[in-house]
Amino acid sequence: MSAGPRARAVRRRDTEHRLGHDVDVWVASASADGVPYLVPLSFDWDGEALLVATPADSPTGRNLASTGTTRLALGHTRDVSVIEGEVENLAMDALPPETGDRFAARTGFDPRESAAVYRWFRISPRRIQSWRQADELTDRELMRDGRWLG
Question: Of 9, 34, 58, 141, which residue is the least packed, with the fewest Cβ within 10 Å?
Answer without folding.
Answer: 34
